[in-house]
Amino acid sequence: MIPVYSVAQVRAVEAQEISKRGSESLMRAAASELAAAAEAMLAQTASPTDALIIGLIGPGNNGGDGLYALTELAQRGYQTLALQCTETGHPEALKAYASVAGTVKSLSEGEEALSSASLVIDAIYGIGYRTGAQLPKLPAGTRVLACDVPSGLNCETGSADDDVLLAERTVTFGAMKTGLISQDAPLVTGEIQVATLDFDFSSITPETHLVDENSAQELLNVHRSWRDAGRHKYERGVLGLIAGSALYPGAAQLTARAAVACGVGLLRTHVPEEVQSLLSLAAPETVPLDDEQITEALSLARRHLHGRGAKISAWAIGPGIDSRTPPTGVIANVFDSRQPAVIDASGLEVVPTGPSEQPRVLTPHAKELRMLLRRAGVSVTTEEVRQDPIRWTRWVALAYNAVVLLKGPTSYVVAPNGANLVVCHAAAQLATAGSGDILTGILGYMLSDSSLTGIYGLETVSNSRLMELTACAAVIHGQLGRVTAQQGTVSASRLIDQLPAVMKDFGF
Ligand SMILES: NC(=O)C1=CN([C@@H]2O[C@H](COP(=O)(O)OP(=O)(O)OC[C@H]3O[C@@H](n4cnc5c(N)ncnc54)[C@H](O)[C@@H]3O)[C@@H](O)[C@H]2O)[C@@H](O)CC1
């Protein structure tokens, strides 16, 4: 997992490093990383002599990094042009560039060249940016490498100006920063590369940890057990799905199909009669589950949480339930059990606050998070949630004694003890109807599989493991969005089509 620090924390470590190593040596080290990233971006498309790299240069150290990087690139034979976007610039770096590559032009003098740039290095503003500067508009299709932070992005909050410079890649220095993974940032930064510059963060507690594809893979490997081989379907895991209504017949189908596509041992469905016939057609692998069978399964679960002795090993509750007529009795019984459950959509409207023995994951989006807060007696605006998502997700985690996944372009996973993880998938295409139902199917499957939860007897899953598995499900979901978008437009059904291949990439 990648530690994430606030700008203040990065500034504090930077000050220590400057006192040890000197400011210019740090800047040169940052510039070398930036130059290497520029070369890597151009490697497939242009030889040094053909490529024109333009640096957009600002007034502070960010501009200094950009100028030193251009200097290195000029020394390696690239054509370069430095365009100063503000009246002042970093004096030593300006001199260094001028001695190797000639004079620096002002933006208005050299703006025309932007349309023939192979690559633009955005070194106007970095972590010192305050919202409100006027930023240059780049020709459509310009490839942009951001130095530390895209200009126009507030690196403390993740809020971006309308004219923010959209990057294909961002090389950020020292450490991953909160503002690079919050609010608008995932839609702005492109791929982020952290150049640590050997900064020493050992005495500083990170604000949170980012779970990316590699770290999700590592977490899954840590949790996966050898007991997986040759198991009976009941041992593999049975998911009980309580979902659907005449009003929303599709949601239950999507969750069911997603769980089946993940390879669930068995899926048992408690849905209204009129939905069951559609469901049996959409997912013939499913087996219906009536009220009595649920009571029996829950009674058996008091002796066996998983395996042949238990008819169900985990639950998914909520997709497509009509909130005016939820099957409250059945759901309340499941909430009383100690079997893991993922609760989404209308299920969130009936989940109780207070202590609970059940390992639960609630998966609200921002509006549902506000509803959960209101039910717990806390009134906040959407803007307040946007400003401080971890704080408000933590409130819900504590009030409902559950792991909470706040869904969005950046997703936050928070445990009742306040521990938290961030998943930043930037797959805007996932904002499509039914995509959340699929996440419930993926997570439901994962909670039903003992080789991931480690539930073999009566010992249930810990909140920290639940939090990590939830983050993995969110990463898989994000990757699913990206992979599907590469093939064309995204719909929930097309996401499910890609699910087996994406699961395979994560070792399933
Ligand atoms: N923090 C680190 O670990 C390191 C930082 N370095 C670089 O240093 C940068 C930070 O340097 P600075 O503190 O000089 O900050 P910046 O270079 O981001 O910019 C600060 C300058 O921009 C001006 N400014 C900010 N917002 C403005 C607005 N809206 N309108 C007009 N002017 C505005 C400020 O007045 C100030 O002059 C980092 O982003 C990074 O590129 C690297 O050189 C080395 C390592």
Task: Describe the protein's topology.
Layout: E1 2-5, H1 7-21, H2 23-42, E2 52-57, H3 61-75, E3 79-84, H4 91-101, E4 105-106, H5 107-110, E5 119-123, E6 144-147, E7 169-173, E8 176-177, E9 191-195, E10 208-210, H6 213-223, H7 233-236, E11 238-242, H8 249-262, E12 266-270, H9 273-282, E13 287-288, H10 291-301, E14 314-317, H11 328-335, E15 341-343, E16 360-362, H12 366-375, H13 382-387, H14 389-400, E17 403-406, E18 410-414, E19 420-424, H15 435-448, H16 450-453, H17 463-487, H18 492-505
Parallel strand pairs: 1-8, 2-3, 2-5, 3-4, 5-6, 6-7, 7-9, 10-19, 11-12, 11-14, 12-13, 14-15, 15-16, 16-17
Antiparallel strand pairs: 1-10, 17-18, 18-19
The structure holds ligand NAX.
Which segments are poorly predicted (pLDDT under 50) over 5 or more consecutive residues? none
Q: Give the ligands present.
A: ligand NAX
Q: What does the radius of gyration come to? A: 26 Å
CATH evolutionary superfamily of the largest domain: Ribokinase
- Give the name of the CATH architecture of the largest domain: 3-Layer(aba) Sandwich
When the domains are counted, the total is: 2
Main sheet specs: 12 strands, mixed
Shape: elongated
The CATH class of the largest domain is Alpha Beta
Which structural class best describes the helix and strand composition? Answer: alpha/beta
Strand order of the largest sheet: 8-1-10-19-18-17-16-15-14-11-12-13
EC number: 4.2.1.136
Catalytic activity: (6R)-NADHX = (6S)-NADHX; (6S)-NADPHX + ADP = AMP + phosphate + NADPH + H(+); (6R)-NADPHX = (6S)-NADPHX; (6S)-NADHX + ADP = AMP + phosphate + NADH + H(+)
Family: In the C-terminal section; belongs to the NnrD/CARKD family.
Binding site for (6S)-NADPHX: 251, 320, 365, 437
